[in-house]
Amino acid sequence: xxxxxxxxxxxxxxxxxxxxxxxxxxxxxxxxxxxxxxxxxxxxxxxxxxxxxxxxxxxxxxxxxxxxxxxxxxxxxxxxxxxxxxxxxxxxxxxxxxxxxxxxxxxxxxxxxxxxxxxxxxxxxxxxxxxxxxxxxxxxxxxxxxxxxxxxxxxxxxxxxxxxxxxxxxxxxxxxxxxxxxxxxxxxxxxxxxxxxxxxxxxxxxxxxxxxxxxxxxxxxxxxxxxxxxxxxxxxxxxxxxxxxxxxxxxxxxxxxxxxxxxxxxxxxxxxxxxxxxxxxxxxxxxxxxxxxxxxxxxxxxxxxxxxxxxxxxxxxxxxxxxxxxxxxxxxxxxxxxxxxxxxxxxxxxxxxxxxxxxxxxxxxxxxxxxxxxxxxxxxxxxxxxxxxxxxxxxxxxxxxxxxxxxxxxxxxxxxxxxxxxxxx
Amino acid sequence: xxxxxxxxxxxxxxxxxxxxxxxxxxxxxxxxxxxxxxxxxxxxxxxxxxxxxxxxxxxxxxxxxxxxxxxxxxxxxxxxxxxxxxxxxxxxxxxxxxxxxxxxxxxxxxxxxxxxxxxxxxxxxxxxxxxxxxxxxxxxxxxxxxxxxxxxxxxxxxxxxxxxxxxxxxxxxxxxxxxxxxxxxxxxxxxxxxxxxxxxxxxxxxxxxxxxxxxxxxxxxxxxxxxxxxxxxxxxxxxxxxxxxxxxxxxxxxxxxxxxxxxxxxxxxxxxxxxxxxxxxxxxxxxxxxxxxxxxxxxxxxxxxxxxxxxxxxxxxxxxxxxxxxxxxxxxxxxxxxxxxxxxxxxxxxxxxxxxxxxxxxxxxxxxxxxxxxxxxxxxxxxxxxxxxxxxxxxxxxxxxxxxxxxxxxxxxxxxxxxxxxxxx
Lengths: 425, 425
Known about the structure:
Strand content of chain A: 15-25%
Radius of gyration of chain A: 23 Å
Structural class of chain A: alpha/beta
Shape of chain A: globular
Largest interface: A-B, 78 and 78 residues
Helix content of chain A: 25-40%
Distance between the termini of chain A: 13 Å
Number of helices of chain A: 11
Oligomer: homodimer
Largest sheet of chain A: 10 strands, mixed
């Protein structure tokens, strides 16, 4: 965790020797002075802070807890930021990700996935055994899966249980039981595996509905959330929960307002903890997340009541390498530098080093094609784009941009690097 | 370069402490014994070696030189392998990549790109000044670009020139001059900047034509290659080349046979060095590269004459986490683990730990959807797929799979790890 930053890391000046992360702010590198080679990935600090405030406000208003999905950024420093904002825990997708979070000191982890490998389970049990502060939740959606967890925990007891959330899915979806009856069967199997397993709640993932038109997606999400709540009531009535406070969890980055709302109405025999898992709020974007957020604001008075709005914090900068045709420029940044799974990036700003003080808005510029290391940008006839100009790209889908970088610079509003965060993908 | 491997690295056992790369083979980790957590990325050593032999044979038969594109894998260890196979140099796309290769001891680098930033150019000049063995080529496609290179080199002379290849492009393509006349203008500007710049050859990138149907792509590629050769003749006649051996370079992973053939016919006043840049041959794939290779074999008698064939060396393994519906399994590997820009991965093998000795062929299995951390796999009614099975995925486009991993294991035919390679993206 305290490994020095490798001087070869993308985004660092060429002359850097290996150094520790804490030193970076003292160097006063400025993007507009070309202190950093491009392409480079930047997190705008002021936007990050406003986004953190938004999420805290939203959670205060809804009473929901937050276990932001750490897979978004996989950054120990950003885990720390999120925990300091009062996060209940960190959500993760794989046991390697758990390992990263454990080394970053995260004590409550929700693995929003099934675990099937004996060595994966053994690692978790070892962590539980060795660290009394560690609390671990994972999902179960099959008798086979519960059998694996129970057998591993029984053969090498950790002294404390693996906390289980039953996962409810839907036909054509991802993981998760396909019926209430099968889910009840899995819940009974978990109950039967006490004290090694402990049934703590019910979970689902509504996020795949984000690919439907909003008007179709929302009713599907609401139906799934109702089914999750209904399943929790059945499990509650059957006396299968092993805890005083029952976890109901769902929530990708598109519909978390609906999760807070639906689960907020759910009444069980014990207290309900609503755990939202949206992770993209921290940086937001100028693509899908922006689109989702507009719909969320329309739906949710809690969201509208907050004093700030989510805004884009993540930019990838690249040089104009060539303007080979009228209205067409080639940038030195490509799919190695930004995600493209939910659309091409958007040119946000243009800057001509040495000529102006601050970037101007890129208006009418568009990324029309991308390659591994290049982006093809068109621009209007009245725009002045020259070789050597710097272009700031906004992206769609933060997750797949974070994983292109081992280090992202945190910059102030004048684009001076004040800090940096590492990623551990 | 000798930094220890971070124990958090994806693909390493959970209990590993930081360690040096050289130790990995001694641990005798075996994938089929579940010594490694999944997802994991594997390079099959026997396939790598056959692919290396294929490329050596092909180069021997055509007389072309090879500067494999290092952006494919960005692995110091694989750079070393390629140089030991006799590569003329390594091709790269950005100056950060050059930095990685320089630290790996690569002395001849072809930056198949324009450089526009003063600090990028200064770094290259510093390297030239400090290391007499270093030889550096980059591209020029504009007077503005040449001006930047010349000004930087004149103000801080390196004692040796920046070696320049004129880049010829085409309308709707990427970088590169759009006409012979403009390219001649750029060539004259390079000549005028002697001794700081040295005009060494002509270059182009035909690879974007790979997205056309083969029957349309091939004539376009041949036309571009003829134009590059024609430009070289014009520059030669004008006496602008500053070297005794003129470099003609092109070649992505689809059409390098055509490059060798077209440039092999080119006659100039001095000796011609044909430099191919294809990088994906090393691992090959089961998608686009396989498709390109079939067409290449049909076209090229040199290719057919070699004793071996390229074969897929790169596999990403994931567990079956859930079989929630008949004929549908969810795998714990997703777009964080493999590229998807040129198609979804293909299930190649299935293995049930503890039940069988070796993986069986996955027949009829198909990846129908992917998410960040999951793949949705369908399989035939007669296939037996269970929770906990391991699935080996073949991929399409090695570049965008390499960049999902900081470490890839090299395995023997029994899936025992014999070595590993790091990446520096």
